[in-house]
Every structure is written in C-alpha cells, then in structure tokens.
Write a structure and sequence with these properties.
With 220 residues, this protein is an alpha+beta fold. The chain has helices at residues 2-7, 11-17, 34-48, 57-62, 66-69, 76-82, 89-98, 115-126, 163-178, 188-191, 196-200, 202-208; strands at residues 133-137, 144-149, 152-157, 182-187. The chain has 2 domains: 25-98, no CATH class; 104-219, Endonuclease, Chain A (3-Layer(aba) Sandwich). A 4-stranded mixed beta sheet has the order 1-2-3-4, with helices on both faces. It is globular and about 50 Å long.
Length: 220
C-alpha cells in the first residue's frame, strides 16, 4: 500500500484513480492564513455581484465559508472590513444593529446571541423536540452548555479553530467526562452538511423527537 501511495502521489489521488469520488478535506487551520481568507471574501463579493455592504451572514454560509467566518467571530462586517472594503459608519452601525442579539430569534421565539445556535434551535424544534433548555450550567463549573435535551448535553461549537475557544471546548469535554455526561459537540461543518447532523443526534431524535423518520434506523 505504501508503494501505491507513493506512485499515485498520495492516498487522495490513489482513491481518485480507483474511480472513487473523494473530496479533499481542508486542513484544520486552513483559514488561519489571513491572505487566503481575504482572497475568498473578495471572490464571494465578486460572485454575488452586489455591493459589499449587502453581503450577509447567510451569503457566507451559502458559500460554505462558515469556518472562515469563525475567524471573525461570525461577523460578516469584520470579514468585509478585513478584506479592505470601505463601509460607512452609518452602514456599520445599521448592520451591527441588525446582527445584534435581538435579531437572533428562533421561529418559536427563543433568543440567541449566535445565529448558529438559533439555527440549531430551529432544527431541534422542527424535529418535534419542544422540551429543551438553553445555557445550562455544567456541574461544578461556571461554564454553560448551549442545549440540554433530556440527559444529552449539546454544544454548538461555531468558533473552532480559535485557540481560546478550542480550550473552552476541551474544558467542557473534560467536565463531561468527569461527571459522566452525554456530551455531543456540533460544529458548523456538522450542521450544514446533509445527514451529518441527524447521525450525530440520532439517539436524541429517537428518544425525544416526535417526528417519525424512517431513515433513523440506518444511522445506528
């Protein structure tokens, strides 16, 4: 196998030559390169063919640039400014107001400071899981968990790749292990890829969801 990989210049190319359609996964810190981020931001604005001031969080998500946006604390304003786009103080003030915590309301009225958490909340509700809590304190800790459904602790990890945030998630995993908690960490990559979210939350759906999904048995 080692010789095969050398001949084909890597395992990825070997699989492609074997006729398999494999998408190359970006390295963990792919977006740590600022110039790379700026290049993709400019490509996004150009492809949308709209003024930079009109580019929203949804545009970034639609282009699958959620991991890039995490480097800007999920703020499209910060991303656009870093890419060199000139936004007037009035536009920045208006956009910040629109992107403030008051706008992050789920479809059933729950408030969030994160669009990512709001989207997960909507997804949970749409699956028939009405009984769930937000911002629940971990045992013997000042840290909170994003969602608690039954005895499942669910983290919406939208900022992975930032050192300080990675440390927080690591600490939450330690606490969960110490107290034998059923912790499930959901990344943006998990949530916005088809079927992945259902696979990760299959036990939660089986035990607490009311929407029947005959495909759940295949996610065992």
């Amino acid at each position: 196998m080692g010789v095969l990989i050398q001949v084909t210049n890597g395992s990825h190319n070997a699989l492609i030559e074997a006729g398999l359609k494999i998408k190359r996964k970006k390295p963990k810190y792919y977006w740590a390169d600022r110039q790379r981020r700026i290049g993709f931001i400019k490509k996004l604005v150009l492809s949308l063919n709209i003024p930079a001031e009109e580019v929203t969080w949804e545009h970034f998500i639609g282009a699958k640039l959620y991991s890039l946006l995490a480097y800007y604390n999920n703020s499209p304003i910060k991303a656009l400014l870093d890419a060199g786009y000139k936004l007037s103080p009035e536009i920045i003030k208006k956009r910040k107001k629109l992107n403030g915590k008051k706008i992050y309301l789920s479809n059933h009225g729950h408030k969030f400071m994160s669009i990512f958490e709001r989207d997960i909340d909507n997804w949970i509700w749409n699956k028939g899981i009405e009984e769930h809590r937000h911002d629940v304190p971990y045992p013997e800790s000042k840290l909170n968990c994003d969602f608690l459904i039954g005895d499942y602790w669910i983290e919406a990890a939208g900022l992975l790749g930032n050192r300080w945030y990675d440390k927080v998630i690591k600490e939450k995993k330690r606490i969960a292990k110490e107290h034998d908690l059923k912790l499930i960490v959901i990344t943006m990559d998990d949530f916005y890829r088809k079927k992945v979210i259902e696979r990760k939350l299959v036990d939660v759906l089986r035990e607490h969801g009311t929407e029947y999904n005959e495909k759940l048995t295949s996610f065992a």
